[in-house]
Amino acid sequence: MLKVTGVGINFGGLKALDNVSLLVEEGAVCSLIGPNGAGKTTLFNVITGVLRADSGSIEFQGRNMTGLRPFQICQAGIAKTHQLRNNFPNLTVYENIRSGFLKDALSQQERRKRTYEVLKLMKLADKADAVVSNLPPLDSKLVDLGRALATSPKLILLDELIGGLLPSETDQICDIVLDLRDKGYTIFQIGHEMKPIMKTSEKIFVLDRGILIAEGTPQEIRTNPAVLSCYLETEEG
Are residues 132 and 96 in contact, defined by beta-carbon separation less than 8 angstroms? Predict the structure, then answer.
């Protein structure tokens, strides 16, 4: 579904991504891990058109997406949640999720119907009228995910969706990710917490200092010497 080929990007003298290539298969849950500053969010921003790479290409379902603007990539079927809160804080939960449907030409009745379908899927129907700035962290993240779903994506990029949550809340997110996969969505997620990554992923990619150093199944990554060395060096540093 997603093919990243030879992507590189520099910020001044810093090489944030160095010839990164990877494949995300349709219908899978894939994860991108690595130490802080490894280039994970930078890669997501290149995929979604927020940043333009200096080299390489991005293909989505066989279509070259290189150089397209974020709204064009969204229209093609790629959605992204955000590491930092990116909801409309003064709008309600209903209004935030409804905003995702504005990309499609729908009647008011159809837009309302679909909004409530997403609210129910995210278990937020009873909080539809709540102002988003008043929500606890888990619900705020679910609003962000719900708005992404409202854009009718085929591929969803999750940037640290489980970051900063309690263990019980992390389990809820894992269940939602697996449920979305079962409903036919393809998931590509960034994470730092290994337990939920290992629980939900079919394939894991590892970045270190902008270089893809490993890829494989959770078991392969768990025992990969290069990955273990990368994380040990980070902890020692």
Answer: yes
